[in-house]
Amino acid sequence: MEPERPAGDDGTSILMEEMTFERYLERIRGGAVVILPCGAIEQHGPHLPMKADAFIATAIAERTARAHDALVAPSFNYGCKSQALSGGGQVFGGTTSLDSDTFTRVLRDVLRELMRHGATRMLVLNGHGENQFPTYEGVDLALRDAGRDDVKILVAGWWQFVSEERIREIYPGEFPGWDLEHAATTETSLMLALDPASVRHAHVLDERMDHVPPYAVFPQPPDLVPRSGVMSRATPASRELGEALLDTVRRGLDDLFRREFP
Amino acid sequence: MEPERPAGDDGTSILMEEMTFERYLERIRGGAVVILPCGAIEQHGPHLPMKADAFIATAIAERTARAHDALVAPSFNYGCKSQALSGGGQVFGGTTSLDSDTFTRVLRDVLRELMRHGATRMLVLNGHGENQFPTYEGVDLALRDAGRDDVKILVAGWWQFVSEERIREIYPGEFPGWDLEHAATTETSLMLALDPASVRHAHVLDERMDHVPPYAVFPQPPDLVPRSGVMSRATPASRELGEALLDTVRRGLDDLFRREFP
Amino acid sequence: MEPERPAGDDGTSILMEEMTFERYLERIRGGAVVILPCGAIEQHGPHLPMKADAFIATAIAERTARAHDALVAPSFNYGCKSQALSGGGQVFGGTTSLDSDTFTRVLRDVLRELMRHGATRMLVLNGHGENQFPTYEGVDLALRDAGRDDVKILVAGWWQFVSEERIREIYPGEFPGWDLEHAATTETSLMLALDPASVRHAHVLDERMDHVPPYAVFPQPPDLVPRSGVMSRATPASRELGEALLDTVRRGLDDLFRREFP
Amino acid sequence: MEPERPAGDDGTSILMEEMTFERYLERIRGGAVVILPCGAIEQHGPHLPMKADAFIATAIAERTARAHDALVAPSFNYGCKSQALSGGGQVFGGTTSLDSDTFTRVLRDVLRELMRHGATRMLVLNGHGENQFPTYEGVDLALRDAGRDDVKILVAGWWQFVSEERIREIYPGEFPGWDLEHAATTETSLMLALDPASVRHAHVLDERMDHVPPYAVFPQPPDLVPRSGVMSRATPASRELGEALLDTVRRGLDDLFRREFP
Amino acid sequence: MEPERPAGDDGTSILMEEMTFERYLERIRGGAVVILPCGAIEQHGPHLPMKADAFIATAIAERTARAHDALVAPSFNYGCKSQALSGGGQVFGGTTSLDSDTFTRVLRDVLRELMRHGATRMLVLNGHGENQFPTYEGVDLALRDAGRDDVKILVAGWWQFVSEERIREIYPGEFPGWDLEHAATTETSLMLALDPASVRHAHVLDERMDHVPPYAVFPQPPDLVPRSGVMSRATPASRELGEALLDTVRRGLDDLFRREFP
Amino acid sequence: MEPERPAGDDGTSILMEEMTFERYLERIRGGAVVILPCGAIEQHGPHLPMKADAFIATAIAERTARAHDALVAPSFNYGCKSQALSGGGQVFGGTTSLDSDTFTRVLRDVLRELMRHGATRMLVLNGHGENQFPTYEGVDLALRDAGRDDVKILVAGWWQFVSEERIREIYPGEFPGWDLEHAATTETSLMLALDPASVRHAHVLDERMDHVPPYAVFPQPPDLVPRSGVMSRATPASRELGEALLDTVRRGLDDLFRREFP
User: Fold this and answer.
1) Cβ <8 Å between F21 and E117
2) Tens digit of pLDDT per residue, chain A (262 long)?
3) Which residue of E has its CA nearest to F22?
4) Are D20 and C109 inside 8 Å of each other by CB?
5) For A100, which of F104, F213, F215 is closest by C-beta distance?
6) Catalytic positions of F, please?
7) Smallest Cβ distance to E215: which of D90, D155, D215?
8) pLDDT in tens, D67-97
9) Burial state string for C195-226 with b = 16 or more CB within 10 A and e = fewer than 16
10) Cβ–Cβ of E92/F21 closer than 8 Å?
């Protein structure tokens, strides 16, 4: 015998895509916040799957939605172009990126639709640093095109909830900065906490860039970034650090919901 | 103890996003076909989740990849605008659509990246009728912009593998045509076969449109399409019909692989 | 001596371009429907001129305008890209197509202008299958950009008025479907009825495609479509069939005007 | 009995749209020049039809093609936005204009297709002043996008062949300049020579603008341009002046063909 | 000791960029006209700097602002593509041009922002002929996108204030027309009056084009325009002529302000 | 008597716009680096002029060009949209911003032209944080569209040359981070060093934001940022700090030239 209420429509569901449209609209009319996870498909070293950015954003979005009775919209699987010094750059095979304007248009269109449905409270949750600025532009265009100012749209990258003080407290050693943390200790730790089966343990490695120039070079020099795609140390990663990061992020999001979506 | 080879990199994996970039490139260099599932998030009546189009395309893509040692790229979760007489139209809340040009650009960008990686054999698998024409345009622009003619990119909607003869054989009653089959007998059957827990059984219903005009009307008249979002009969749906449809599609795809990607 | 009222301004005129702007505005203020014929310039086999799609759409538009006191706007001479299995594809010389987004923008701009003039009732009449989806998008963008919902814009391809039952009644033999009917029996019949001098009789021929794949292949394989550009049988064409088709379409359009533009 | 060679394929035909694609390609392979007439649909006073710009460009294109064994491609029926001081501006109903970028894209696309067909000699013939600059841009983009420099594309407005000296010789009275000549003596004369039945004689009138500012004002002041849409004197128009203008233009085009397309 | 009121905020300042935002807003609230100078960076023969068009537009803008208590916004340093017969064309190194649509978008965006600030009176002052039409489009899009008709935006090229009669009075010899006056007598005279140190005296030269075709040729023939980049006579240039031109332009702008911005 | 060599063409000149095109091309052929300063016109508190970002970028570009025999192209006066937490956001009057895609297109077009001139070594020097990501995209598009990989284009914001260690050494007090440093101590110090007359001394003030959310809010809450437009302390500013910053940046740029443009 099959269920009267499907997975998506029962009381505990958070995924917009699993719901019937009627159930979704009920939730929207009830003021539910819609969370849009934005990721990327990008090289993440020899030990992490290419989904890392999208997966982490989606996992945090789902945890947040469960905690705050929010909804999660289908994730943006493809992100903006990887830059050499934050994700290794577009010289890597596997990294699959959109033009900045393409990404911005997708976000504009989806937000416009959510507003048409009646949504007034939205949170764009980023897992890929290079999405950040194009995300701001997409939100601005959505609001301008729709002529709306009666809604609230928030944008955050998960790392923004981890203050510099906090990362110094929990990071094992000296923190190299978020940009060089690509496929390194923090992302590996998060994947160990969230999806340990996806981490290829024996391939976790440490890299050190001889020279991190304070500028960008195009076309990207072939030897600028280690061929492994890792840009700093990854071996200090641990499930515990992952959990500590998730906990910090959770507290930041709790605060966000309390202040912005009471 | 955790695995040496992660889920994405072991021999049986098919999901690009689960792989490390090195494993993915190995597969591409080995000539693996990349399948891109394109769906939509769209109202599917009171009994189906909004993911139906994306879910069906992805499920078929994964089965095909397993059968033919191909890869599945992350799916396109958002599709082109719903039209009144094929998906109920943009009057429905929940339906979340991209402008046609936005969709085309996303596909162009992703295909351009796959070609940069070295992929030469690609299949765009559609689950949402309104994506079809913009998909052709995206493929054309990707090839033109990249100046490539040494690759092969195929485009198919799953329903194209179900010939008119075949559907008459397996359909219980008179087939109303693919357009009016939205959230009706075939899609409900496929969901019963692929994800029965997502179907809200007690809400499966039959609709009959009094008048199906042989033209489109903009803005969409509010009473043109039944408010349920279903456009013809859904109660004849069954898991068996779903399996028969999947089997027919599978044979079509087997044939496609034999002819085009030997 | 020359006429006081020019061709375009006398009581029987239907062509917007032949009218003075004042006469046109008078007609618009009187509620006249504006019909926009959209065609293509495209190979149509060795026996039909490249104008066929534009010519048929325009001829039907003019007949309809005369019957219903409507206006005909200047036709769109260039259409969207030909697809292999509906018009032979972009491998043919002569076929002269716009990017999908270009076509959509032209339609958006022209409809926006008609609405500025005061037009509230419009009909886009298509003669080229590949224009259909981009036409829907153009209408949607025109309405959205202009912020208008007090107008009615209809979209139809002439073939949509010929039901499957009707085509079986009048078609001599087995109907191969509208897509393969390119430069074949129906279009040749229509040209025989509408402009017999343009048909190169001795070159009417029959083709049969060995394999019609249920998917599209890019770049288009050079031998997929017969080099003649004809995709099925054309020799059954006759002026009588052309007249029967025109009569069926006329009845469909009469019905459209009765229901939608009373 | 019907013709073996249709109108479009016989030896004297010049219209691309009337030809079969094979005949057209034969002509292109033989080096035929393709002429693209670009017009507009625009108010032309109380006495001229809105087609004037498109009609004049097309008529001259056809005469030129006959004289020089060239082809005429389907005309661009819609032109760029009318400016107050050259065509009366966008305040007039009836004037139906494209965004500048839309027009440029159409031209880019069509030229790209002609080059794909093998055309290497093209002439864009303008009948609407406001098309001029967007035409240059369209040609530039077509050449850049196609990466071609082995072709020759010429652009001309018909009035450019009428030197200031020549217009002073043939113009009855003082010439007010091409911009203010909208719907005035020269255009009315051309229509009298080319299509006298389209001219509403009793409504030909003279206007004089009190103030022609040496700058443009947006939004256009409602009283800047006479409400008739005529911007200077039209009553001096005559068939003879029209013939003299056509003869002057013909000689300019003869010269163009001799120098550029020998 | 440093000033209490900075350069930009004292009573005599005219440059928007030198002001604090508060002082600027005060001026805008007081109804100040904002002048936007649009130039180009383009070859100007062997004797003039590439800034000529931007410099002249800016200098005139500043003089006008001083006379009429207006503001000058930062200039547009890059202009639209040079055409062969007005600026020598894109075959010259040094000439640095934007696509027409890029220029139009910049102007649209900047005007939209000025309107957001509260500006209702604006003057776009052009120094580069090829900017003229794209400027009209930019103004039109800004007004349309912002849905504003309560503002007044004027567009003028400085040469439009020099009537044909006036140029014949002051020009030493026969005036070759504004298009061929590139880097010739008038521009050289203006630079002698405005910035004599930038003129390379010994290199001022006279050119005469053997053939000035009444049409444009793409790609531009390499020998169409003199290699010096000068297109007619420059040696008649003098500071006195420059002053006479500036005086004529000044009177035209005085008239503009009196009529349009009282 | 006037100069034989104008300002722009003598040996010490660095401004592209002051040169004749021939002198510029000589310099390019000699391998000169072209520096493109990108700024913004944006509120900078009650004490700084709106030009600050553009002025600082240009001043540093000119100093660098003099030190390394490079050229400075005309600056980009308008930048990308201000964000609340880096420049106060788009709620401020005076701030005059381009859409992200507009900025990217301008940069793409200008770089494409420089490459056409023969330039192979370019440096984009940013003075406005929000330009950074759109600059990367513009460079990427320029290289892709031009199909070039034989050039080197660098991108840097001046603040990237001031390491965290260095800023802690020279900053008087605790450094609040570059984002909140808008119109605050560092920018005020730079303006004191570069253009002291533009600083309104009596209005330099300190602000402290009660809450700096780790996320962005759209539409921007009216009370998020102090109404002064200053976002942290400005009173510690001094000419000496400005000089120390300039010296640090100079050393970074010296290093850049040594490594990248030897």
Assistant:
1) no
2) 344 555 677 667 899 999 999 999 999 999 999 999 999 999 999 999 999 999 999 999 999 999 999 999 999 999 999 999 999 999 999 999 999 999 999 999 999 999 999 999 999 999 999 999 999 999 999 999 999 999 999 999 999 999 999 999 999 999 999 988 999 999 999 999 999 999 999 999 999 988 899 999 999 999 999 999 999 999 999 999 999 999 999 999 999 999 999 9
3) E46
4) no
5) F104
6) 42, 44, 53, 128, 130, 182, 187
7) D155
8) 999 999 999 999 999 999 999 999 999 999 9
9) beebbbbebbbebeeeebbbbbbbbbeeebbb
10) yes
Compute the C-alpha angle A110/A115/A116, nearest 5°. 95
List chains touching E (3+ CB pairs under 8 A).
Answer: D, F
Q: Name the DSSP class of F36.
A: E
In a domain, A1, yes or no: no
Chain E residues whose beta carbon lies within 8 Å of the beta carbon of residue F128: none
Helix (H, G, I), strand (E, B) or coil at A119: coil
- One-letter amino acid for residue D48 of the chain: L
b/e E224-241 (16+ beta carbons within 10 angstroms → b): bbbebbbbbbbebbebeb
Q: Which of A47, A68, A130, A181 is catalytic?
A: A130
Of chain D, the end-to-end C-alpha distance in Å amounts to 40
What is the arrangement of strands in the sheet containing A71-72, beginning at the earlier edge strand?
Answer: A71-72, A34-38, A121-126, A152-157, F216-218
How many residues would you count in chain D? 262
Across the range F171-194, mean pLDDT stands at 94
Degrees (nearest 5) of the Cα angle D228, D234, D238? 145
Q: Are D72 and D259 in contact (CB under 8 A)?
A: no
Helix (H, G, I), strand (E, B) or coil at F68: helix
- Residue contact B93–A117, C-beta within 8 A: yes
DSSP per-residue letters across chain C = ---SS-GGGSTT--BGGGS-HHHHHHHHHTT--EEEEE--B---TTTS-TTHHHHHHHHHHHHHHHHHT-EEPPPB--EEPPPHHHH--TTSSS-BEE-HHHHHHHHHHHHHHHHHHT--EEEEEESSGGGHHHHHHHHHHHHHHHT--SSEEEEEEGGGGS-HHHHHHHSSS----TGGGTTSHHHHHHHHHH-GGG--GGG--B---S---SSEEESPPTTSS-TTS--SB-TT--HHHHHHHHHHHHHHHHHHHHHH--
CATH number, domain with residue D56: 3.40.50.10310
- Which residues constitute the domain of residue C75? 7-254
Residue B245 in domain: yes
pLDDT recorded at residue D1:
38
Fill in the amino acid letter for F114.
L
D3 is a domain residue: no
Interface confidence (ipTM) of the complex:
0.96
Model confidence at D4: pLDDT above 70: no
pTM, rounded to two decimals: 0.97
Instruction: Spell out the residues 6+ positions from residue F255 whose beta carbon is closer than 8 angstroms to its own.
Output: none
Q: Active-site residue E203, yes or no?
A: no
Of F77, F88, F62, nearest to F225 (Cα)?
F88
- Tell me, yes or no, whether D9 lies in a domain: no
Nearest to A116 by CA among A28, A17, A26: A28
> Model confidence over B97-138: pLDDT tens digits?
999 999 999 999 999 999 999 999 999 999 999 999 999 999
Q: Is B99's CB within 8 Å of A116's CB?
A: no
CA distance D248 to D250: 5
pLDDT at residue C2, as a whole number: 44
Other C-beta atoms closer than 10 Å to the C-beta of C1 total 4
Tally of structural domains, chain A: 1
E130 an active-site residue?
yes
Rounded to a whole number of angstroms, the distance from the CA of F224 to the nearest CA of chain E is 18
Confidence of residue D210 (pLDDT cuts 50, 70, 90): confident
> Chain C residues with CB inside 8 Å of D110's CB?
78, 96, 98
